[in-house]
């Protein structure tokens, strides 16, 4: 059972991925982890699961106060902020 | 005269054949006879009427390496019906290890497996360096059987020293590793374990992660001399990489004629196609002649946390995210500030957080009053006359934030999907991590849960199929000679249990680790007797004095 999520479908670009959903999942070690779903420019969907520290860093890099704030953001942009920390 | 005669039980012999009422006779550590009626007298007769008599269960993925040095039963594993464990997984074993490298390895064990430091400093005399020395150290007091792996990280450490965590090995170093691995296999190691994901206490990749594929290939050549197992931890959180690792394992398996296994394979509610994709690839590779066994655990994954550390559990709640990311002193001050706490409670929703937090369970083993352990936050909040969100904050504040909460079954919990996967002939039931993650969750009771959830409740497996999965299948996969079947001549590892009751108890804290350390455990339910190598090892809720466990002989 995972937390309820916000789903938003932005108009996809040709060569970039946007966050369409973010939810909490159980990590194998019992920690809550962040799973981000991405829609790519070609319409494909993928997901990325982040450990707690990286998940919080992503929220901060994205300027998001909560999970909902990640939705609709460009993946390359928020992760650039992550690597630059 | 037989040593033990188990009479009148339903014999489920581990082969998958239908159970039948009959007797099992034990003599000199072996099954002497199995049949509808076994005539003869015995020193000890055990009435198994109305009970299942099965081979002892085998747990293929554990980290009991340290615990076995002071606890030959790997408690509570034995009382769950487990008569054989495989320690040394995930690239980490306690040998071969030079004395000067012990501190570094202990750090890795602590980081990855959450073992307390006292486990390494107080509980045993570290007298060995080679694998035979470790084997002899644990063999003295074993109450269950052990088939130990040797860790790739420690092999690299032995040969390369500190460079093991800096670079790939030179050819001469690879040759030295091969010779060392050969020695370990000759001393009884069941195979080699490696990891592609783990880090040490400093966040640095463990030594095995610096190995080139050629190095792993060279070590697999040595495994192939004896047909021994390669165990890996793949990048299990990324399905595409896991698929690539399956392909790699398949190439190694075919080239060197070895069995391989990877752990863990999880089902994911958010991406339910991930596990089936991996299993489809496994099935393809089996069709090519490879042996790549994915290990899947039976138990669901819980989320646990305290407010001592930021948890993503609250990441939908902006004010909680903001407060919990504060340094500890500021966090305490913020939580204690009524205006801030009010806003946090408001964040949790008009129901005071009931939907999100009401089912959280207080775990115990922390600073909270012991009598609250096992109670839901909803119940505790009602007693206190508070909303669940308010109770969570206040309870945490009252005990220095050292109050552990658990959100049960938040992952790998879809019985309708997992059951058929566990039943698949291509899935190896394991990945328990027994003896690790001590302060995070209980790694015991997976075998009981297999029966309670996937046999009784969902019917995904028959009783006979479930027994086969965790006995003869495991013994065959790992090459454990004469284990896993109730047949004449086989080792007399036997479990007697109540089919209608077998399960796992609630998770609870227990302070029995060295240094009075806490770990979470689960009691066994429905296990009546456990025999190891022909001696009664556990009966009527208590361990016996028997020390009949052995280092497993390999086929």
What does this structure look like?
The complex is a heterodimer of chains A (85) and B (555). By secondary structure, chain A is an alpha+beta fold. Chain A has helices at residues 52-61, 75-83; strands at residues 18-26, 32-39, 45-50. Chain A has a three-stranded antiparallel beta sheet. In chain A, a hairpin with a 5-residue loop joins strand 1 and strand 2. The relative contact order of chain A is 0.22. With 555 residues, chain B is an alpha/beta fold. In chain B, the strands form five sheets. In chain B, strands 1, 2, 3, 4, 5, 18, 21, 22 and 23 form a nine-stranded mixed beta sheet that branches. A six-stranded parallel beta sheet of chain B has the order 9-10-11-12-13-17, sandwiched between helices. A three-stranded parallel beta sheet of chain B has the order 6-7-8, with no helix packed on it. In chain B, a hairpin with a 2-residue loop joins strand 22 and strand 23. In chain B, helix 6 crosses helix 7 (239-256). The longest helix of chain B is centred in the middle third of the chain and has 18 residues, at 239-256. Chain B is globular. In chain B, 55% of the residues are buried. Chains A and B meet through strand 1, strand 2 and helix 1 of A and strand 14, helix 9 and strand 16 of B.
């Amino acid at each position: 059972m995972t937390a309820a999520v916000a789903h938003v479908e932005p108009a996809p670009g040709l060569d970039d991925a946007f966050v369409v959903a973010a939810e909490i999942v159980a990590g194998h070690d019992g920690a809550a982890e962040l799973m981000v779903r991405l829609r790519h420019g070609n319409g494909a969907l993928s997901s990325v699961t982040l450990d707690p520290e990286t998940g919080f860093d992503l929220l901060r890099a994205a300027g998001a106060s909560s999970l909902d704030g990640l939705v609709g953001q460009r993946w390359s942009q928020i992760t650039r902020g992550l690597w630059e920390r | 005269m037989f040593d033990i005669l188990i009479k009148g039980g339903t014999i489920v012999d581990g082969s998958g054949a239908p159970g039948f009422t009959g007797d099992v006779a034990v003599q000199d550590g072996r099954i002497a006879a199995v049949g509808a009626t076994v005539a003869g007298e015995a020193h000890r007769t055990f009435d198994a009427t109305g009970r299942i008599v099965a081979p002892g269960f085998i747990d293929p993925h554990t980290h009991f390496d340290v615990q076995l040095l002071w606890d030959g039963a790997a408690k509570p594993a034995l009382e769950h019906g487990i008569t054989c464990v495989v320690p040394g997984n995930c690239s980490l074993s306690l040998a071969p290890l030079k004395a000067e490298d012990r501190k570094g390895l202990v750090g890795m064990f602590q980081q990855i497996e959450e073992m307390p430091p006292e486990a390494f400093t107080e509980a045993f005399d570290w007298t060995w360096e080679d694998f035979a020395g470790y084997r002899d150290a644990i063999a003295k007091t074993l109450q269950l059987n052990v088939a130990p792996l040797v860790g790739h990280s420690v092999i690299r450490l032995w040969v390369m020293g500190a460079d093991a965590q800096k670079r790939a090995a030179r050819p001469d170093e690879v040759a030295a590793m091969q010779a060392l691995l050969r020695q370990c296999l000759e001393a009884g190691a069941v195979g080699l374990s490696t990891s592609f994901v783990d880090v040490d206490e400093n966040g640095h990749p463990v030594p095995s992660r610096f190995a080139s594929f050629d190095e792993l290939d060279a070590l697999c050549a040595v495994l192939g001399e004896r047909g021994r197992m390669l165990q890996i931890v793949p990048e299990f959180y990324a399905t595409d990489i896991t698929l690539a690792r399956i392909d790699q394992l398949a190439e190694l398996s075919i080239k060197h004629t070895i069995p391989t296994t990877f752990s863990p394979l999880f089902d994911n509610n958010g991406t339910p196609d991930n596990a089936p994709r991996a299993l489809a690839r496994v099935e393809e590779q089996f069709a090519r002649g490879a042996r790549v066994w994915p290990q899947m655990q039976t138990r669901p994954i819980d989320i646990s946390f305290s407010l001592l550390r930021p948890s993503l559990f609250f990441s939908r709640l902006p004010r909680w995210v903001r407060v919990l990311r504060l340094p500890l002193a500021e966090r305490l001050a913020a939580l204690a500030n009524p205006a801030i706490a009010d806003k946090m409670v408001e964040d949790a929703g008009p129901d005071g957080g009931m939907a999100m937090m009401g089912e959280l369970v207080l775990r115990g083993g922390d600073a909270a009053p012991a009598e609250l352990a096992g109670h839901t936050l909803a119940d505790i909040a009602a007693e206190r006359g508070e909303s669940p969100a308010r109770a969570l904050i206040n309870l945490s504040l009252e005990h220095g934030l050292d109050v552990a909460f658990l959100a049960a079954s938040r992952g790998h919990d879809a019985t309708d999907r997992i059951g058929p996967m566990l039943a698949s002939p291509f899935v190896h039931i394991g990945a328990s991590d027994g003896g690790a993650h001590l302060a995070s969750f209980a790694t015991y009771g997976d075998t009981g849960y297999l029966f309670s959830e996937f046999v009784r409740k969902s019917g995904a497996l028959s009783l006979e199929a479930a027994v086969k999965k965790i006995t003869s299948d495991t013994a065959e996969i790992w090459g454990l000679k004469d284990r896993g079947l109730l047949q004449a001549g086989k080792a007399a590892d036997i479990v007697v249990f109540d089919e209608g009751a077998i399960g796992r108890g609630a998770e609870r804290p227990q302070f029995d680790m060295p240094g009075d350390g806490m770990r979470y455990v689960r009691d066994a339910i429905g296990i009546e007797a456990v025999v190891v190598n022909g001696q009664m090892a556990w009966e009527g809720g208590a361990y016996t004095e028997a020390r009949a466990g052995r280092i497993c002989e390999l086929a």
